[in-house]
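Kindly review this protein for my students:
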Amino acid sequence: MSLIWPFFLFCAFASSVSASGSEVDSARLHAIAESRYWKLLLHYRKGRWGSEESEADGAGFFFSPKGRADSYAELLATLEAFRSDKKIQVQTHSEFPQCAFPERFRFLREQLKLDIPVQSCPDFDEWKARFHARAVVLVYAAPYFGSPSSMFGHTFMRIDAAPSVGMAKNPQLDRAISFEAFTGSDGGMGYVLNGLIGNYPGVFSLHPYYLKINAYNDIESRDLWEYELNLGPEQIDRMLNHAWEMGTTYFNYYFFNRNCSYHLMSLLEVANPDWHLRENFTVATIPIDTIRVLDKIPGAIRKRAFRPALLKILEARLARTSPEERSDFYRLRGHRGKIDGHPSTQTLDALLDWQKYEAMNGSHTILDFDHQVDLELLRARAGSSGPVLTEQAAAEQIEKEDGAASRPPESGHLSSKLTVGGGAETGSGLAELGFRPAFHDYIDADPGYLPHSRLVIGDVLLQYRFHSPDTLRLQKLTLAEVINLAPWSGLKHGLSWDLGAGFYHPEDVGCPSCVAGRVRGGLGITVSPWPKVATVYALAHGQLEASSSFVPFFRFGPSGELGTQWDFGGRAKAALSFEYFKYFESSLMPRQNWSATTAQASYALSARWSLELRGELYALVQDNHARILLSTGWYF
C-alpha cells in the first residue's frame, strides 16, 4: 500500500500539469486569433454593428467554413492544414498550404514555435526572387477622364530592386503590384453600373513598371507621383509574402470605396501593423486621400519624385525652343522620311516624343511605336549634337515653371467640402448651405487636380429665404457631373464636354419650391489665349427634364453656353458664364426661353478653407431676378 499512494500522487500531479498546459495553449491560441496581425492577414474589418468579417470574397482564402467571420476557427483549421502534406488548388495549379500562405506559416511558426517540417515551395521562391526587393514606392496616377474608374486618380505599388553590381539602376525595370477589377470586355453604362454595385472581381496583379509608365504617362498622358515608403527589409518581406497569398482569393471591386487604393492599404498594414490605414475610409476611398493618410504618419514617406506625362515633357521641350525651331517641329511632324534642312537636336527630340505620343494613343502599345518610328528621324538625331533636355531635367523644369499644376497632389484641397454663406436676391435676404462629398470644381484651387475640370458626386445646395413664403429651397442636388474644359492647342485637339444628372430648381417656372430632375450632356471647344492664366470656352448642351411643375411633365431642349475662366497664381480664380436655354414649344407651357449669367470668384486660404463670391442673373419671360452670395468653404 505504501508504494501505491506515491504512484497515485504522481499521476494526479502529472494530470494537473497537463491540464494547466492545455489551458495555456488554448489561451495562447485565442490571443493569436484575436491579435491585430492575424486579423490583418485574414483582411478582417469591423462592420457597422461591431461584428468583424473578412473582406476577402474568394472561398479559397479560408481553410475553415467559418473562417470568414471566426478568426479562431480559421486559426485552428490553418494549423491543421499546415501539418498536412495534402496540396490545395490555387488558381490553375496546386500548392502545399504552407506554400500558398507563406506569411501565415511564418507568423504562426514564429509565434507558436511549431515543430512542423517545412515544405519545398519552388513556385513561390521563384516568384519572390524576381523582386530583389530593396524599397516600396507607392505611385499615384493623376485623374483621367477617359475612364469612369480613373476619374478620381489611381494608386499602385512599385517594388524597387537592389541595383546589380556594376550596373546603373533603372526603375522602369522594377515590378509593380496593383489591385484591378477584372471587367472582361464590358464598357459603357454596363461597366459603370457593375463597378458601382461591386459586380466585378478585383485581384492583385504584377506588371513591369515600364508598362505602367506606357499606360499612364504615355497613352493617357497622366502625371505620376512616386512616394518611397519607410519600410525595412523584414517589413517588405512580410508584405511580399502576403501579396503572394492574395493569389488565392478575390475581392468584390467597388469604384467608390473598395477599389484599387483601398486594398493596397491592406498590404501596407501587413508590412507595418502600426499603420492604421483602412479604418480612415468607410463611405468612399479616393486615391489621393490614401496618400494624405500616409503623409500624416510621421516618417512614413521617405521621399517624393515627379514623373510628368509624355505630353508635358513634349511641351517643356517646345517651350525651350526658338520660334524657328518650333516652326521646324510643326512643319516636320507629319512628314515621315523627309527630314529636310538642319533641325536642331531639341527639335528632333520633340519630333521623337510626338511620334511616340501619336503611336501610343493610336494603338495603346509601345510595340507599335517601335514599328512606326521614322528611321530617317533616328538617323538625323544620331548625327545631331547640341543641348539636350533629359526627361529628368524636363521634370525639374515643369515643377519649377508649372506652378500649382505640378505641386504634390496631397498638398491640394481635401476631397469633401461644406459651404456656408449668405447674401441677397431681388426682394429677399438669403442664407445658403452646401455639401459636396467629392471631389473638385473648376472654381476650386487646382494643385493635385486636373485644371479646367469639374467632377462632383452628391453635391447638394440648400437656400433659406428670409422674406418668402417658401423659406427653404433645394437649389440643386447633383448626383454626378463631369466637365472637361481642357484647352485646344497645337498638340491637343480634344473636344470639351460635360455629362451630368441630378435635380435643380427651375428658375423659369415661377414656382419657388419646385424641383426638376435633369439629365444633360454637351460638347464644345476651349481655347487658352493666355496659357495657364485664361481660357475661353463654348458648349452646346442638350437636356431632358421632368417635373410636376411642367405641362406636360417632360421637356427637352438645347442650350448654348459661353464662358471664361481665370487662374491668378493657383490661389485666386474667377469664372464668368452665360447660358441660353431654348425648350421645344408647347402650347400648354409658353415660358420656354430664358438665360442665366453666373460670375464666380474664389480665394484658397489653405487646403481646408476658401472664400467664394458668386453672382447670378436670370433673364426670364415673366421677370428678371438676381442674387449675390458670399460664402466660406471648408474642405475635409
